[in-house]
């Protein structure tokens, strides 16, 4: 974590603010293995029925599975549905 990010994390904790706001981190909500919602994303890098790669501020989020569909996409959030088998985060 960069020094600037460490300072922001400490400020968030000190002022009881959500870290995702100050650090610009993605917020990920998962419902079983059927639905993933990612807020605060930076766009879709790759999309196939087996893989959705989403850009985040600190890396990439990889969703793998079968019959994956981007059900909703906006500037703020993306919702992926299907048979999700794996979720990983690649730090860049």
Automatic annotation (TrEMBL):
Gene3D superfamilies: 2.60.40.2000
InterPro entries membership: Spore_YabP/YqfC, Spore_YqfC, YabP_sf
Domain of life of the source: Bacteria
Any matching Pfam family: YabP
Full protein name: Sporulation protein YqfC
Organism for this UniProt entry: Halobacteroides halobius (strain ATCC 35273 / DSM 5150 / MD-1)
């Amino acid at each position: 974590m960069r020094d600037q990010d460490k300072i922001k994390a400490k400020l968030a904790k000190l002022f009881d603010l959500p870290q995702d706001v100050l650090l610009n981190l993605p917020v990920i909500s998962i419902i079983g293995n059927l639905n993933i919602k990612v807020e605060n994303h930076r766009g879709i890098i790759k999309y196939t029925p087996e893989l959705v790669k989403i850009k985040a501020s600190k890396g990439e989020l990889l969703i793998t599975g079968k019959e994956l569909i981007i059900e909703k996409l906006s500037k703020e959030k993306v919702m992926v549905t299907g048979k999700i088998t794996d979720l990983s985060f690649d730090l860049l």
